[in-house]
Each structure stands twice: as structure tokens, then as C-alpha cells.
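Entry 14. Structure prediction run on the chain below.
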Amino acid sequence: MVNILEYAAIEKIKLTDEEAAQLSAYAGILEDSFSRLAAADTEGTTPLVTVLDIENVWREDISVKMISREELLSNAPEQYDGYFQVPKTLE
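Output returned:
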């Protein structure tokens, strides 16, 4: 059984007795649901990724150079050694 007051202490939140009882009941329901799921026989079943009967359309991942580095850097306010130069953000 889940002890809600232990979790409340860890999270540093205050719960009234009524709130603790209500959350404990909900946690018990969740715990029961998960234990029923864990007990289900799943031997020989294939995991589902989606319930829809569709397949993803894959394409070839081909690298295409569309813009040269010089053209990309032509509008950069500052550049150094072929890269954008930005202000230092960490000391």
C-alpha cells in the first residue's frame, strides 16, 4: 500500500488528513490497476506501436548541398574561421 504521507514529506507539501486519505485511495486504485496489468499473460503477443492500420512512408536520406558556406555566412554580423561568431554566454 502506498503511504502518501511519506511522499508528501519528500515533496515538502502539507496535506490535510482528508487530502491524504483521498490521495491514498486513488494511489491504491492505480496500484491495483498496474498489478492487474502486470499479471496479464502477454506471451506470444506483438507490442503495438499504433492501433491504426497504417505504415510510415520512408524516404532515402540523401544529403544535398544547397547553399555554400560563404553564402550562408555573408549576412553574419561576425564570423571566424568559417563559423558564426557569437558573444560568450558562459564565463
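The beta strands are 79-80, 83-84.
Filed with the rest of this week's runs.
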